Amino acid sequence: MPARTFNDDVDWDGWPVDAYLAENYRELHPSDAAVIAHHSACYRRLDTDSVERSLEFGAGPNLYPLMLGAAVCRRTDAVEAGAANVAYLRRQLTEGPDASWSPFHALARDLDPRIPASPGAALARVRVVHGDVRAVPQGRYGLASMNFVAEGVTEDFAEFTALCRQFVRCVVPGGTVVAAFMENMPTYRIGETTVWPGCPVDVHTVRSVFAPLTGELTVTRIDADPTLPDYGDSGMVLLSAVRR
Ligand SMILES: C[S@@+](CC[C@H](N)C(=O)[O-])C[C@H]1O[C@@H](n2cnc3c(N)ncnc32)[C@H](O)[C@@H]1O
User: Fold this and answer.
1) What separation in Å is there between the alpha carbon of 206 and the centre of ligand 1?
2) Calpha distance 18→124 (Å, rounded)
3) What pTM did the predictor assign?
4) What distance in Å separates the CA atoms of residue 74 and residue 93, rounded to the nearest whole number?
5) What is the mean pLDDT of the chain?
6) Residue 190's Cα: distance from chain center in Å?
7) Ligand 1 pocket test: which of 149, 155, 166 has the largest number of ligand atoms within 8 Å of its C-beta?
């Protein structure tokens, strides 16, 4: 049996930001729209500015989850291990977001008009933290969001489970968690050459990992998006809950 790749085995500084953006986020795909609609429905249940501090767990170069919290979170920490992703995020915050993020912002704002009117303003409360999500202290946040991280950074199911637990425990009891996972995604390629660890999960495994830690748990799924590259997945799993 080939050796499994764990989170610490990977050089996250080498994440291929441009290729990842080109494959996933240079246009608004139907699956992004579904994730935005899902997360937005959770945020819309929360009062304006009601969360002092929120966490984006493994932010990567994806700006739309950071925009979604703009009406509710007075500050968002985007925690990310990879140097190239951190550099991209910092540039987006200081120089303004790439125009390709405008349709994502427009949809988020259509769904929640409390979100500020420009993509740059919607990111004004974000701080980029270059660090390891496993080092985030427990109970620091009122809300946490995780998109395509726990199942896309290890091949080991026990490590996937540990990352999900760490994600939930970053939030105070009663705090909100929202997440999106690639469904049944094996180890995947980005661009021509790079290979990244994946841990196949589905609605049942995600529910079984989160059920002991959370209440008000909802876990749903969407089909694979034919407009996205084939990463070997069968769709996405979407989750919302509150920490017990
Ligand atoms: C599949 S990408 C998802 C990125 C982003 N959340 C998105 O929605 O596209 C996984 C991300 O997790 C980051 N990552 C991996 N291990 C990490 C760790 N231990 N701490 C913080 N970030 C980590 C990677 O650098 C990468 O940006």
Assistant:
1) 18
2) 23
3) 0.98
4) 16
5) 97
6) 17
7) 149
